[in-house]
From TrEMBL:
Species this chain originates from: Shewanella glacialipiscicola
Protein name per its UniProtKB record: RNase E specificity factor CsrD
Cited CDD domains: EAL
InterPro entries: Cyclic-di-GMP_PDE-like (IPR050706), EAL_dom (IPR001633), EAL_sf (IPR035919), GGDEF_dom (IPR000160), Nucleotide_cyclase (IPR029787), Rev_trsase/Diguanyl_cyclase (IPR043128)
Residue ranges of the TM segments: 105-125
The gene coding this protein: mshH
Pfam families, alphabetized: EAL, GGDEF
Entry keyword annotation includes Transmembrane helix: yes
Domain EAL: 364-616
Length: 616
């Protein structure tokens, strides 16, 4: 456009020059001879038509041999006083100009070269900006705390030196987090594990028994075994430490393998030659069968040549029910152990407590019939217990399952849940509970708790629901859960699903897709019973849990147990700069809650705050 305007301006300047020449000739030579010099100039101008007049008299007229339809007409008055007037008609500057094929080719080549250069520059600039954008994306993920995603997408960030530096720092951070998890596990191992056999020590046994009792009264039924190797010291003296250690390790490994099928079982070393095994929620008949299997495993171990080989292993058993004294339970097991030793050979002995409630001895057939009828008649009911944060506000409520018999009496979850697991009915039970909780959220979004302490404030209602391994492994249950969460997606953010730590540790790869599905649906994830087993804590980051709940065995009397406080400190330190909240289970006295808050625990639940009440 500028070139065209310049051409028109050049034409206007030529016309202005012609006007100047005409005025000079008119002023100097009144009888000017225009025919002598003006036609060649007009011919040079490619003039189409020219007319010079003085008032009404035509002084000079010129008609060119060019014709045009888009002419430019210059009609100017040269001297207003005398009436000298000029009218000049010129063609458009480019009207009669035509490009040759050579000029067209040069022009096209130039245009294509410019286009190619601009395209190349655009691509190069876009590529450079893409690298910067990828670098900015990784930086944004790091600032949001999503280090795993930032490490998994190195991309082609530029400058590449900065991109490689980010990758290296993220890898070192990941290694540091794993090392922190290993260090936490090392602290827990040295606190709660026996250094020689790598099973629980005496402190671990005390913590777990405290968790199974309340005010020295057992909360559920089960059995405790005391296994003693009478001549272990003599074996060590005669055969050496290596032989004794091999016997210990082989016996412990075989017993641990047997106890894998017993949920929530406890295996610990009480002294140099004595071990304790606690199996909750087991019937008396099953306890006798398990005692026979334990003794059989011990007798199958390769025992070196020692005196009294047939009198080496002794097993004392004491069956307990809910309400039995925990301290007396150890004494009964010890008396049973002494009775087994008095028999003169390797054997086991069950402490005779008298008549055992038939409720604990009946088989699984009757339990299956009861559970199926309860499912059909919808006699499973949710009971809720509030979780209170450090500011005194209600964080959420945890749902506990209770059932009622035909007479309307409540049946403890510690009784029917193990039977439901054995009968494979837990998915149906948990499905019924989830439906009831969703109904509660739909009808009553906020529910008052009458027996909370006066300093506790009400909060928007949220519920946490426990999921068992059978439910998470059931394809039908997970598909139903996905459909239900989509249907109630407006209520899903108010749900928290809890999974036990031992389930996550043993089945992490299989559970990870199920847990991701629940999280993507909008619900939150929680892992409970943390600290019940001596394991690392890196799974918390890998599974993207939002909350963790410390097991009551760690919380019990924590204000008097520095080793448990050390565990809490290391756990919270390992979760530094994450959004994971740490909660505590089983808080019963003010001193426990006060100590937990000082240690940095976010929330807690237990009898100190409220008993579980029926959610209506």
């Amino acid at each position: 456009m500028s070139f065209v305007q310049l051409t028109y301006k050049f034409q206007q300047q030529k016309v202005a020059g012609l006007e100047t020449m005409l005025m000079e000739h008119y002023q100097r030579q009144p009888d000017w001879e225009l025919e002598a010099w003006l036609p060649p100039m007009l011919l040079a101008y490619n003039a189409v038509d020219f007319r010079l007049s003085l008032k009404d008299e035509v002084l000079f007229a010129y008609k060119g041999n060019l014709s045009t339809q888009n002419a430019v007409i210059y009609d100017h008055v040269l001297e207003p006083k005398s009436g000298l007037h000029m009218k000049l008609t010129l063609p458009q500057p480019f009207e009669h100009y035509t490009f040759s094929w050579y000029e067209t080719l040069i022009l096209l080549i130039g245009i294509f070269a410019v286009i190619a250069l601009v395209r190349f520059g655009h691509l190069w600039f876009s590529q450079q900006l893409d690298g910067i954008e990828e670098l900015a994306l990784r930086s944004r993920l790091i600032l949001q705390g999503k280090h795993e995603e930032a490490l998994a997408s190195p991309g082609r960030g530029k400058p590449r030196l900065i991109n490689r530096a980010l990758t290296k720092l993220l890898e070192e951070l990941q290694d540091a987090q794993k090392e922190r998890g290993r260090f936490d596990k090392f602290i827990r191992s040295n606190t709660f594990l026996d250094a020689e056999t790598h099973i629980g020590n005496r402190l671990f046994l005390t913590n777990r028994l405290d968790a199974l009792s309340h005010n020295q009264s057992m909360l559920a039924h089960g059995v405790i075994y005391l296994l003693e190797m009478d001549d272990l010291d003599l074996l060590q003296q005669s055969q050496g430490e290596i032989a004794a250690k091999e016997l210990l390790n082989s016996t412990v490994n075989a017993i641990s393998l047997l106890l894998q099928n017993q949920a929530n079982s406890i295996f610990a070393r009480r002294s140099h030659n004595q071990f304790a095994i606690v199996v909750p929620q087991i019937s008396l008949i099953e306890a006798d069968q398990l005692a026979s299997k334990l003794l059989k495993i011990c007798l199958s171990q390769p025992l070196p040549e020692v005196d009294n080989r047939d009198n080496f292993f002794h097993l004392g058993c004491a069956y307990f029910t809910a309400g039995d004294n925990a301290a007396q339970l150890i004494e009964e097991a010890d008396m049973a152990l002494r009775a087994a030793q008095l028999q003169g050979n390797s054997n086991w002995f069950m402490y005779d407590k008298g008549a055992i409630d038939e409720e604990f001895a009946k088989g699984s057939v009757r339990w299956r019939s009861f559970l199926e009828n309860a499912l059909v008649q919808k006699r499973f009911f949710p009971f809720s217990q509030p979780i209170i944060d450090s500011d005194g506000n209600e964080h959420h409520k945890e749902i506990f399952t209770r059932s009622r018999d035909n007479q309307g009496a409540l049946i403890r979850a510690s009784l029917f849940i193990p039977m439901a697991n054995k009968c494979g009915l837990m998915p149906q039970v948990e499905r019924q509970i989830i439906e009831r909780v969703l109904l509660l959220l739909s009808n009553e979004p906020t529910i008052e708790v009458s027996n909370l302490p006066s300093n506790v404030k009400s909060a928007p209602q949220r519920y946490s629901i426990n999921l068992s391994l059978d439910s998470l492994m059931s394809r039908a249950f997970t598909q139903w859960l996905k459909t239900t969460l989509l249907e109630y997606r407006h209520l899903t953010p108010r749900l928290i699903f809890e999974v036990a730590e031992d389930i996550v540790i043993q089945h992490q790869e299989k559970l990870l897709p199920k847990l991701d599905m629940i999280r993507k649906m909008g619900a939150r994830l929680c892992v409970d019973h943390v600290g019940e087993q001596v394991v690392g804590t890196y799974y918390i980051r890998e599974c993207h849990f939002d909350l963790i709940k410390v097991h009551r065995s760690i919380v019990r009397h924590i204000h008097m147990r520095p080793e448990n406080q050390l565990f809490i400190r290391s756990l919270i330190g390992g979760l530094y700069r994450t959004e994971v909240q740490v909660c505590a289970e089983g808080v019963e006295v003010f001193e426990e809650w006060q100590t937990l808050k000082i240690l940095g625990v976010s929330a807690a639940q237990g009898m100190y705050f409220s008993e579980p009440i029926e959610a209506k």
